[in-house]
Design goal:
Blueprint: E1 2-6, H1 10-22, E2 26-31, H2 34-43, E3 45-50, E4 57-61, E5 63-67, H3 72-81, E6 84-87, H4 94-107, E7 115-119, H5 127-137, E8 146-147, E9 151-154, E10 168-170, E11 175-179, E12 193-195, H6 199-222, H7 228-231, H8 235-255, H9 260-274, H10 283-287, H11 290-293, H12 301-309, H13 315-325, H14 333-345, H15 347-353, H16 359-366
Parallel strand pairs: 1-2, 1-6, 2-5, 3-10, 6-7, 7-8, 11-12
Antiparallel strand pairs: 3-4, 9-11
The structure holds nicotinamide-adenine-dinucleotide and D-Mannitol-1-phosphate.
Nicotinamide-adenine-dinucleotide (NAD) binds next to helix 1 and strand 2.
C-alpha cells in the first residue's frame, strides 16, 4: 500500500508518516526542501525519538521523497499510485497542493480504488480547502472513489536540532481524529480515532492546546522567555494561561456536549504536556504565523467573538490579542506583514478587517 504525504516537516515525519508506516504503507514524502528529500531517498528510513525519561525510539522504514519543485513526473506517478494522500504543510499552502494534484486526479478518474485525501493542519475543517479546490476543477469527480475526510491532529513536535536531519523528537502524546462518514473503504487506520462529528474534537483541540500555546508564547515573549517549558515555570504565565483556558472552556462547554469536569481534565492533561522538560519548544515557533492566528476562525478570535456576543467572560482573550500584536519575531514574515498593515491602515481598521472584531472589543483591546 502506498501513501503520498505532502510536507516532510516536523509533524509529517514525527507523526503522520509514522502512523502511516505503522499501518503498512510505504510512505513517499513530497516537499520543496531539497536537503530533506535527498536525505529521505539516501537513507530510506529515519528515527522517531519519544521525549520522555527513558523514551523509546522507533525506526520508520521504507520511506522515500519527491522534490515537488523539480520532479513533476515522479509526483504524477505517486498521485496515480497512492492509496491515501495526506498533508501537513500549513493551511495556507493547501491551495498550492490542490493545484499540483488536480491534473493527476483527473487522469486517475478511471481508477476505481478508493482514495482518501486528508489535510492534517491546525485549522477548522482544513481538508475542505482541498476538497473545494479539487471539485471546482473536477466537478464530476466521483466522491465514492475520492473521499475528503477532515481531521484533527495533536502531537507537539518542536523544530528539530538533531545531528541527523531526518530524525525527529516528539512528545509521547498523540491524537489523530478523522471524520468517519467521509472515509472511503474498509481499510481504516490503526492508531486513529474515527468520529461521526469532528467539529467538537477539532475545536476542543484548537481552542485548548493551540489557544493555550499562543497564550504562553505571546505573553511569554513579552517577558523575554524563550521556550514553552521555561514559560511553564513562571507563575505570571501560568496564571494567564489558566484564565485564557477558563474562557475557552466556557466556549467549549457551552457549544458542545463536554461537561465542565471533562474539560477541566482535558486542560490538566494539556498543562502537563506543556511542562515536558524533555522537549525544547521555541515560543517563536508556537507563535509564528501571527496573521493566521489572528484570523476570525482561528484559536483566539473565534472563541473571543462568541464569548463577547454571548456576554460571557472574555477579558483574558482580549488581552491575548494585545500580546499577539506585540509579538516580536523577526523570522515570522507574517509579523512584518501585520506591522505593515497596521502602519498603513491603523490598528482599528486592521482588527476590524482582518480579525472581524467589533468596535467595542477593539476599544477593550487597546486599553
Ligand atoms: N509541529 C506541531 O507540533 C504540529 C502539531 C499538529 C499540527 N501541526 C500542523 O502541521 C502543519 C505542519 O507543521 P510542522 O510543524 O510540521 O511544520 P514544518 O515547517 O516542520 O513542516 C512543513 C513542511 O511543509 C513543507 N512545504 C512548504 N511548502 C510546501 C509545498 N508547496 N509543497 C510541499 N511541501 C511544502 C516545508 O518545506 C516543510 O518541510 C501545520 O499546519 C501545523 O499547524 C503541527
Ligand atoms: O502549528 P501552528 O502554528 O498552528 O501552532 C503552533 C503550535 O501550537 C502547534 O504546532 C502545536 O504544537 C500542535 O498543534 C500540537 O498538536
Amino acid at each position: 500500500m502506498k501513501a503520498l504525504h505532502f510536507g516532510a516537516g516536523n509533524i509529517g515525519r514525527g507523526f503522520i508518516g509514522k502512523v502511516l508506516s505503522d499501518n503498512g504503507y510505504s510512505v513517499t514524502f513530497a516537499d520543496v526542501n531539497k536537503e530533506i528529500i535527498d536525505a529521505l531517498n539516501r537513507d530510506t528510513s529515519y528515527t522517531v525519538n519519544i521525549a520522555a525519561e527513558n523514551g523509546d525510539s522507533y525506526t520508520v522504514e521504507n520511506v522515500s521523497g519527491i522534490n515537488t519543485a523539480e520532479q513533476p513526473d515522479k509526483l504524477k506517478e505517486a498521485v496515480l499510485e497512492a492509496d491515501i494522500i495526506t498533508t501537513a504543510v500549513g493551511v495556507n499552502i493547501l491551495p498550492i497542493i490542490a493545484k499540483s494534484i488536480i491534473p493527476h486526479l483527473k487522469e486517475r478518474s478511471e481508477d476505481h480504488r478508493p482514495l482518501n485525501i486528508i489535510a492534517c493542519e491546525n485549522a477548522v475543517m482544513a481538508t475542505n480547502v482541498l476538497k473545494e479546490a479539487v471539485l471546482n476543477e473536477i466537478p464530476d469527480l466521483d466522491e465514492n472513489i475520492v473521499g475528503f475526510p477532515n481531521s484533527a491532529v495533536d502531537r507537539i513536535v518542536p523544530i528539530q536540532t538533531n545531528e541527523n536531519i531526518l530524525d525527529v523528537k516528539v512528545e509521547p502524546f498523540f491524537e489523530w481524529v478523522i471524520e468517519e462518514n467521509a472515509w472511503l473503504g474498509s481499510n481504516k487506520l490503526d492508531g486513529v480515532t474515527y468520529v461521526s462529528e469532528l467539529m467538537p474534537y477539532i475545536e476542543r483541540k484548537l481552542f485548548t492546546v493551540n489557544t493555550g500555546h499562543v497564550a504562553i508564547a505571546y505573553f511569554g515573549r513579552t517577558l523575554n522567555i524563550e521556550t514553552v517549558s521555561e514559560a511553564m515555570q513562571n507563575e505570571e504565565v501560568t496564571n494567564f494561561l489558566n484564565k485564557v483556558l477558563n474562557e475557552t472552556a466556557l466556549y467549549l462547554t457551552n457549544k458542545y456536549d463536554f461537561s465542565e469536569e471533562e474539560q477541566r481534565a482535558y486542560i490538566e492533561k494539556i498543562i502537563e504536556r506543556f511542562k515536558n522538560t524533555h522537549l525544547s519548544d521555541d515560543l517563536n515557533r508556537v507563535g509564528r504565523g501571527v496573521l493566521r492566528k489572528l484570523g476570525p476562525n482561528d484559536r483566539i478570535i473565534k472563541p473571543l467573538l462568541y464569548l463577547h456576543r454571548e456576554g460571557l467572560e472574555h477579558h483574558a482573550l482580549s488581552k491575548l490579542v494585545g500580546y499577539a500584536l506585540k509579538f516580536d519575531n523577526t523570522e515570522d514574515p507574517e509579523q512584518a506583514e501585520m506591522n505593515k498593515q497596521i502602519e498603513d491602515k491603523g490598528l482599528d481598521a486592521f482588527l476590524s478587517e482582518h480579525s472581524g472584531l467589533p468596535s467595542d472589543l477593539i476599544a477593550d483591546i487597546k486599553q
